[in-house]
Automatic annotation (TrEMBL):
Primary location group: nucleus
GO molecular function, one term: ATP hydrolysis activity
Keywords, sorted A to Z: ATP-binding, DNA damage, DNA repair, Helicase, Hydrolase, Nucleotide-binding, Nucleus, Transcription, Transcription regulation
Recorded superkingdom: Eukaryota
An annotated GO BP: DNA repair
Organism per entry: Gracilariopsis chorda
Residue ranges occupied by any AAA+ ATPase domain in the UniProt entry: 51-346
Protein name: RuvB-like helicase
Catalysed reactions listed for this entry: ATP + H2O = ADP + phosphate + H(+)
Gene Ontology cellular component annotations, sorted alphabetically: nucleus
A Pfam short name: TIP49_C
Region (Disordered): 443-465
Compartment annotation: Nucleus
EC number: 3.6.4.12
Length: 465
């Protein structure tokens, strides 16, 4: 079963050829200007015109900033590397902040490596394996002959022990169309020849029929791999080895290793063996980074090995972490200077209703009309996210009473079970003396405007509370 994530209903930006957004498209609702801007960014990224630039998605919590970034990743497609981190991850990994950022940046740059290999490709006419007369040893076969053909030629190859083994392992028989990699001896079965399809009456549905290849038996074939620079780093750092790629436990990578890789990649590019594919690094909740990270990023995006940086922040004018200065979105001015800013706006009631409907469909949950109306009201008055959680939990309550459709009663019950932030804050205000570290008196003394900017809770709680 596929897990349903918070953004799994989003399949793209929902734009047409002219980048005009449909009111609802590919799981996204409304937010038309931001979506159009994101579409333009995707085009710029794909044409390589956005290198060394950065984008900030700014807007209140729950206005779809992360959703928009995920939609961009979908629109860019699988060939463009897209790395997503949350700013706080930078502080929690077992490595320095700059190392964590460097790894994230290098994960977001792909290297497309072109390799030419010599292959032999043809249809097996005959495979003849000689069995030695004295079959005492475990080596049963010693020699053999393989006849391969294309539509134009036919050749007999002498087989060594190794080839015979791999032919037997792949269960190659006459009528198969195969490829042999000359350098490694690797055999790949492409399918069975159409010409011979009548010879077999018991053909399973999993047999693929292919044409007999034409032209020469031997040819050069280009294979393309895309790996990220980070993967090349890990494989080449001696302490780590490629196994670290699977464990994810890469530790710090020495700068000498990286320098060498950069030189090597530059060489490959000059020789036309490799191309760079600048991808996207998305840093969510970017105001959680501190001034050291920001100055590092500022420098990093200037390098010619830089991905496109997309950040999201829900802060207004607030402290830059690690300093006593305030700045818009909590970002230093020199970084702000390079940014293209996309803003997301709060949703209308109709849009909230449509997003909730899409989520009900995504989670495969039937909801009555009046229950949906209630959910929408809750979504407007508390938060979109809270309403989304209620869908899932009310469905469980509904299943418990063996209902088939979530109704108003189910939602009321879960609404009573789980507080939203507003009610939770009210409870806190009433009973704060009984909690540990009751700090509410301290914060009340500070200037309320300043508090609204710097306190994350304030941003979430509607103004009247
Ligand atoms: N325009 C939209 N269309 C569909 N779903 C949306 C839209 N905006 C937000 N959502 C969904 O609402 C939830 C909250 O949005 P999110 O992107 O996490 O907000 P933010 O990152 O701005 O705080 C997510 O599950 C998201 O997928
Ligand atoms: Mg978010």
């Amino acid at each position: 079963m596929e897990r349903i994530g918070a953004h799994s209903h989003i399949r793209g930006l929902g734009l047409d050829e002219q980048l005009n957004p449909a009111h609802i498209g590919q799981g996204l609702v409304g937010q038309l200007e931001a979506r159009k801007a994101a579409g333009l960014l995707v085009k710029m990224i794909q044409s390589g015109k956005l290198a060394g630039r950065a984008v900030l998605i700014a807007g209140q919590p729950g206005t779809g900033k992360t959703a928009l970034a995920m939609a961009m990743a979908q629109a860019l497609g699988p060939d463009t590397p897209f790395t997503k981190i949350t700013a706080s991850e930078v502080f929690s990994l077992g490595m320095s902040k700059t190392e964590a950022l460097t790894q994230a940046l290098r994960r977001s740059i792909g290297v497309k490596i072109h390799e030419e290999t010599d292959i032999i490709e043809g249809e097996v006419v005959e495979l003849q394996i000689d069995r030695p007369l004295s079959s005492q040893s475990s080596e049963i076969t010693h020699s053999g002959k393989l006849t391969l053909k294309t539509t134009e030629m036919e050749t007999v190859y002498d087989l060594g022990v190794k080839m015979i083994k791999s032919l037997q392992k792949e269960k190659v028989t006459s009528g198969d169309v195969i490829t042999i990699d000359k350098a490694t001896g690797k055999i790949t079965k492409l399918g069975r020849s159409f010409a011979r399809s009548r010879d077999f009456d018991a053909t399973g549905s999993n047999i693929r029929f292919v044409q007999t290849p034409d032209g020469e038996l031997q040819r050069r074939k280009e294979v393309v791999h895309v790996v990220s620079i980070h993967e090349i780093d890990v494989i080449n750092s001696r302490q780590q080895g490629f196994l670290a790629l699977f464990s994810g436990d890469t530790g710090e990578i020495k700068s000498e290793v990286r320098e060498q890789i950069d030189i090597k990649v530059a060489e490959w590019r000059e020789e036309g063996k490799a191309e760079l594919v600048p991808g996207v690094l998305f840093i969510d909740e970017v105001h959680m980074l501190d001034i050291e990270c920001f100055s590092f990023i500022n420098k990093a995006i200037e390098s010619d090995l830089a991905p496109i940086l997309i950040m999201a922040s829900n802060r207004g004018i607030t402290n830059i972490r690690g300093t006593k200065y305030k700045a818009p979105h909590g970002l230093p001015l020199d970084l702000l200077d390079r940014l293209l800013i996309v803003t997301t706006k709060p949703y209308s009631e109709k849009e909230v209703d449509e997003i909730l409907r899409i989520r009900c469909e995504e989670e495969d949950i039937a909801v009555t009309k009046s229950a949906r109306a209630l959910l929408t009201r809750i979504g407007m008055e508390t938060s979109l996210r809270y309403a989304m959680y209620l869908i899932t939990s009310s469905a469980l309550v509904c299943a418990k009473r063996s209902g088939t459709e979530v109704d108003v009663e189910d939602i009321k019950r879960t609404y009573a079970l789980f507080s939203d932030v507003k009610r939770s804050t009210q409870t806190l205000a009433e009973f704060h003396g009984e909690y540990m570290f009751s700090a509410i008196e301290d914060t009340q003394r500070t200037d309320s405007q300043q508090q609204a900017d710097s306190d994350p809770m304030q941003a979430v709680v509607p103004a009247e509370s």
